[in-house]
Every structure is written in structure tokens, then in C-alpha cells.
Amino acid sequence: MSALSLAFDTQRLAEKYEELSSDRQFKQGKWLIEELNLVPGERVLDVGCGTGLLAEHVADIVGPSGFVAGIDPLPLRIAIANRKARPNLVFQVDNAYDLTEFAENSFDAVYLNAVFHWLSEKEEPLQQIRRVLKPGGRLGLTTGSKEHPNRLLQIRREILSKEPYNAFPESRSGYPHWVSVPELVWLLDRNGFSISKVEVLENVIHHANADAAIDFSQASSFGNFLGHLPDELRESAIAEIKDALEALRTPEGIRLEGCRIVAVATRK
Question: What kind and span of H or E run contains 199?
């Protein structure tokens, strides 16, 4: 995952993600799940399940006769997810690039909620997902829009482009690996999916202050927001980002506007 490291995650970040994602990624994920029209008895794979909040919701939908598997490459987040495990809901450390743990044609639906942009190379995961889906099985995903980055990501990019931060390759490469709608349509079609829906939706996040905005970004990026910088530079970069964010603050807090792409497709 070019410029992204799994080693930056910490117990604090994992616990913070569990706390903060319940009001953001989880809510967006529930909307995605509605689009997949899941029914009792179906088998579902959650790729990049994080701490398991959405997978737990899906397990309630498919019921005792169904089955949900959640995978994530971050052991600390899977440890939290395992607190939610039950007979029809299991979690394991794994990643989208190797789904050989699962048999061909073994799932009715697969979804990636706020995950696709963390995959630097996207065709292999899509091919893996197609393999484990049953013919006609559904794929759902939400991801950030390359063409509509929120203001915090713009601020980060601007600050890290300056000295001394730009001496670090990760600063120049940017993050995450966003796609545009045309790119996503091309990827899905090329890798054996028929698209049912692709939609760009407004994605507005409110933060009480700059600290809250940075906490969320650190937790949701598993430490990659600024984790590549040495400690002393990381602190100065945080200070600069805070100053820029506070300039946007109103009595209602800091409003960060962007867009997300929602896509639903079926295996050809």
C-alpha cells in the first residue's frame, strides 16, 4: 500500500475509531447496506471491517440462518471487532489482496465501506472479490471522490508540500488513493461487474474544533494522516494544520465539505 503503513495503528487509535466511526462511517455504511437489499439467510463478506460495527448490523439483517465474515489487515481493530463475534458473525485478520481463505462462489454480497481508497492497486482486490461472489452476487462500496477532496485534505497537502515536510516521499505521494467516477466505472467493468448504480453524494463532516478533526483523521487513517513524519516534525505539522483549521471555525464548529462515491454492481 504505497505510502501507507499498517504499523502506525495503536490501541488508542483503534479505540478512538470505534468511538468516532459510529457517528460517521457506520451511518454511511447502513445506507450502503440498504442498497444491497440483503435478506435473511445470505452470506456476506465485509472487506475492511474495522472494529466491526457495520458487520454486526449486517449479521442482524441476515439472521441466524445467514453468515457474515469481516476481514481487516489491522490486528488491533480485529481484536475490538471480535468482542462482537457470534455464531453467524466472525472476524479475522486478512486483506483484500488475498481472499483465498474463502471458496469460489461463496458469498451473496461483498461490501467495502470507506475502504476502497485505501487500496493502492485496485484490480487484484476486485478480481478476488469477483471470485468469491456467487454469479449475480452484489458488490457495494463507498469511497471518497478524487474530484471533491474536503478542506482538511487540501490543507494537509498544502502544508506537507512545504519544507521541511516535503523531504519525505510520503508527503509528496499524497493519500489516500481516491478515484473519480469514470475511473471507478472503468475498473468495475474491466473486472467483471455490471454496474447497477454509481452516485456522487455530498459528504459533510462537522467537528467541534481542530483537535477533533485531527483525531478523526488520525483514527480513520490508522495513523497515516501524519505518521510518516518524525516526531518533532509531526508536532509542528499538527500545529500548522490546527491553525489553518481554526481559521475555518464558526460558532457551530468546523464544517468540512467533500463528496463520496457510492457504487453497487453485480458479478457478471
Answer: strand 193-207
Name the strands in the sheet holding 89-93, side by side, starting at the edge strand that comes first in the sequence: 89-93, 67-72, 43-47, 107-113, 133-144, 254-267, 193-207
The helix (run of H) or strand (run of E) holding residue 107 is strand 107-113
Torsion of CA 36, 38, 44, 49, to 10 degrees: 60
Reported as a single tens digit per residue, the pLDDT across 12-45 is 999 999 999 998 999 999 999 999 999 999 999 9
* Grid cell locating 223: 495513523
Q: With 0.90 as the threshold, say if the pTM is over it.
A: yes
Contacts of 121 (CB under 8 A, 6+ apart): 97
- Whether the CB-CB separation of 11 and 76 falls below 8 Å is answered with yes
- Residues linked to residue 92 through DSSP beta bridges, in sequence order: 71
Given the C-alpha cell 481487516, which residue does it identify?
A: 72
- Cell (9 digits) for 132: 468469491
